[in-house]
Amino acid sequence: GYGLIRISSTLNPHPPNLMFPIIILALWGILMTSSTCLRQTDLKALIAYSSVSHMGLVAAAIIVQTPWGLTGAMTLMVAHGLTSSALFALANTNYERTHTRTLLLVRGLQLAFPLMSTWWLLTNLTNMAMPPTINLLGELFIISTLFNWSTPTIIITGMGTLITATYSLYMFLMTQRGSISTQFQLLPPTHTREHLNLTLHLLPLGLLIMKPALVSGLFT
């Protein structure tokens, strides 16, 4: 994202024939990678494709080259950096105890780790841009920017948001709900350092909405 901002500023103003196909590819990538998330059976692959989907929004906003677009891109990059890192940390806590990343094999962990299940819920809601996190602010800036650039983009961004909510809910239900396998009934407990790690990820996402200029680049 940083590289796109630096390179894109040197091409300002953009030739229309250069800007249009790149934005279309970025928007199409949002739908494709989001849809790919719905078919994943590997937990870490699902989270990785989720990051690619969000970067499609960032890339499209940067190429438009408006103040709102750059502000939304900066905000969403910081927000998703924390959210994606928290999701990978949660996936790692599961893997350290079950030694598998396959979603079909690891279900019902809410019964074994109720507090960790709360972290899963909050992180997935944050991935869906739940208020009052800065994820929502970044996505609103980007969606507004793309809508002002071309009205039909609201269809693609709206579908992308809907699919994001779908696979986030799918990820939570597949890992936390259901009946736990008999081979996973004796699992080591979670540690304080793991809960502290997740707190340091999610707390800034809630607090930065009080002063979003710290990450958006709007200091005036």
Structural class: mainly alpha
Tell me the overall shape.
Answer: elongated
Biggest sheet details: none
- Residue fraction in strands: under 5%
Quickly count the domains: 1
Helical run tally? 10
Whole-Å distance between the termini?
23 Å
Helix content percent band:
over 70%
SSE arrangement, N to C: HHHHHHHHHH
Q: What radius of gyration results from the CA coordinates?
A: 18 Å
Kindly state the mean pLDDT as a whole number? 87
- According to DSSP, the number of beta strands is 0
Pfam families: Proton_antipo_M
GO molecular function: NADH dehydrogenase (ubiquinone) activity; NADH dehydrogenase activity; ubiquinone binding
Membrane topology: Multi-pass membrane protein
Organism: Podarcis bocagei
Characterise the protein shown here:
The chain is mainly α and 220 residues long. It has one domain (1-214). The protein has ten helices and no strands. The longest helix has 32 residues, at 67-98. The protein starts with a helix and ends with a helix. Keywords: Electron transport, Membrane, Mitochondrion, NAD, Respiratory chain, Translocase, Transmembrane, Transmembrane helix, Transport, Ubiquinone. The chain crosses the membrane at residues 18-38, 45-64, 70-91, 103-122, 154-175. This is NADH-ubiquinone oxidoreductase chain 4. It is found in: Mitochondrion membrane.
